[in-house]
Each structure stands twice: as C-alpha cells, then as structure tokens.
Design goal:
disordered C terminus
Length: 349
C-alpha cells in the first residue's frame, strides 16, 4: 500500500435489502443525530411487480453533515418473478447487468463519512437509471411508439447498441427478453422508477447547495477488470466527468492526486465518461458537481466476481479518505469558478 490513506479497521455495518422505512434505517445503523432530522417528502417510487417495495432508498438528514451525495443506480437486485420469467437467461443476464454489490460499498461509504445516500433497489434490467428516458429501442416495444408524438431516440443514444433505457441485448448473452415489452409497462417503469429517482437526486443536491453553496454527486459504479497496458495493469478506477462538463476541474484533479497517493491507478473518461446521471445533474457553473467513479470489481469481490471479500473494507476506507478530501476541496471553490482546465486534463492523461 502506498503512502496516504491506509486500510484502517472499522466496525462492519449491517446491510440488508428491506424497504426504505425509518424502522429499516434504525435497524441498519443509520441514525439521525439530535440536531438532525430525516428529509421528508421524497417520493421513493415503486417497483412494478413487487407490491409495497420502494424503487430506491434514501439515507439523508437535514442539516446535511457534508455537501456530498453518494449514489448507486446500477446495483439493484429486487427482481419480480414476472421480470425474471420474461428473460431468456435470467441468471447470466442479471449478473452481467448489475454493478455487483457496489451498493454495499456505497452504503458503508456514506455511513462512514456522513455523506447522503441514494441507492436503487430496482434492477437495471427493469430500467436503466443512467439513461435518458427517451433512449428507447422502440423495435422492442409492442406497437412501437404508439403515436406520432412519442419522442425519438436521441442521436447517439445507447439503445442503438442494445443498452438503452431498457436493455435489449448483451455481448456474450444475446437477446435478453423472450417477447416484446408492452408500451404501458414501459411507461409505468418510467413513471414509478426513473422519474422519482432523478427527482430525489435533484432534491437532495439542491438542499445541499442551499446549505453549503456547493454540492457534489459521486455516482458509484463498478466495472469488470480492464486489460493491462504497456505501462502495467489495467485501471483500478475510472473517473468520468463528461469530458469536463459535469464537475469542477479542481475536484477531479484532487481525486486523481488522491488515488495516486493510495496506490490505485485511475484513468480519465476512458472507457467510461458518465451517462445521463451526470448530464442531468452536473452543473458546475451552478455549483452542483457530478463525478462518476467506476471501481474495478476485483478490488472488493472474489476471483469469480460474485461475493464480497475482506478487501471491501479496505476499499471503503480508501474511498472515505477521498470523500473527506473532496468535502474540503468543495469549501475552497470560489463562486467565479475560474480554472485552468487544460493543465490538469493533460496531467490526468
């Protein structure tokens, strides 16, 4: 381990997959302090096919402890029987689509640092929260658009490659679904999962901005191990900011420097630059920043990339150091936000 933030032992926090209620928060160790209260009035959506199950959970208090929100949109594992039955190969498909157990990492990270947390329980197979709600492959929808007013798939949308709002096919798996999706089911997923999730992200970030003057969204994902390069192993971390559009350059530079100090190899926007979440919520000129962090699964999962290992605690400790650093860096950003972008971008490459 390089200099910087060592892997410190810390008490393991219980994590389970119950609905998001105050009782659940108490059971899992999330407690509001005496001078805090739980954020009220956030619509937690609903998972079609699972009555009473929220689409995502929120752990956040007012006043916020730090101006950072940790989110994990791709780790949901609440599959309805109907959804699983509609897949050709549900076991392999679910494993390939999920950011496997990164929600556990994100939850422990938020609780250790005091960051707010939003974690999707709705699975990516149901609807991809990192896609524009218009990024639809209409050929997989029974009846197509249904009317001439339905939106077109955005130019360059991910649906063209099979990974749009509702994933259609995967490399090495092929077609995911046995039959076309009804248009009414698609609209229900948008209304009950996608829109409430992004509305909640926006609400929490705006509350943070009002309190602190700045807010930062850390959008946590995981990736399969990347191929090595001539200079050594593949990247441990990929930082994405939509090529400078979603986050302050000073924050990104601080993150790169930190990962170098703790011995993790980080790359910039390649092969993951961020998606709809960053486009929708990142607004550096408006003092709301959004940074995507892709984490190599080998840092916290076993050799089969299925189960957590003891290294997950080490990773959480390293990420906690990053959150502490970025929290202080946010305080140093001035309102004019005049930065020399080219210098740090060249260094990041």
């Amino acid at each position: 381990m390089a200099k910087g933030n060592p892997c410190l032992p810390w008490a393991s926090l219980r994590f389970d997959r119950l609905c998001n209620t105050r009782q659940h928060r108490s059971m899992t160790g999330f407690q509001a302090k005496a001078d805090e209260h739980y954020i009220e009035g956030i619509d937690l959506g609903a998972i079609p096919g699972l009555p009473g199950r929220d689409a995502f959970r929120v752990e956040a208090t007012e006043p916020s402890a730090i101006p950072i929100l940790v989110a994990a949109p791709h780790a949901g594992r609440a599959y309805s029987p109907q959804l699983l039955d509609s897949m050709r190969n549900p076991g392999l498909t679910c494993h390939r689509l999920e950011d496997r157990l990164v929600d556990v990492v994100a939850t422990r990270l938020a609780r250790q640092t005091g960051a707010a947390l939003i974690v999707a329980d709705a699975p990516r197979a149901l609807i991809d929260l990192n896609r524009d709600c218009n990024d639809i492959d209409w050929s997989m929808i029974a009846g197509g658009r249904g009317d001439s007013q339905a939106p077109d798939t955005p130019e360059g949308g991910r649906a063209i490659g099979g990974l749009g709002l509702v994933p259609r096919r995967l490399g090495g798996v092929g077609e995911i679904w046995k039959a076309r999706l009804n248009r009414s089911e698609l609209l229900a997923r948008i209304d009950r999962v996608h829109r409430p999730y992004h509305r909640a992200l926006g609400q929490v970030l705006q509350r943070m901005k009002r309190r602190w003057g700045q807010a930062l969204l850390l959008d946590i994902h995981s990736m399969p191990p990347l191929p090595g390069t001539r200079n050594g192993r593949g990247a441990d971390i990929v930082l994405g900011d939509r090529f400078g559009a979603s986050c302050s350059g000073a924050l990104v530079a601080s993150a790169f420097d930190y990962f170098s100090q703790v011995g993790l190899r980080a790359t910039y926007n390649r092969p993951y630059a961020g998606g709809f979440v960053l486009n929708q919520h990142g607004n550096p000129t408006g003092n709301i920043h959004a940074l995507q962090i892709e984490i190599c699964r080998s840092l916290y999962l076993d050799s089969h990339l299925v189960d957590l290992t003891g290294q997950a605690d080490c990773l959480v400790s390293q990420l906690s150091g990053l959150v502490d650093l970025l929290s202080h860096s946010l305080a140093g950003l001035n309102s004019s936000k005049t930065e020399c972008q080219s210098e740090w971008q060249q260094a990041a490459e």
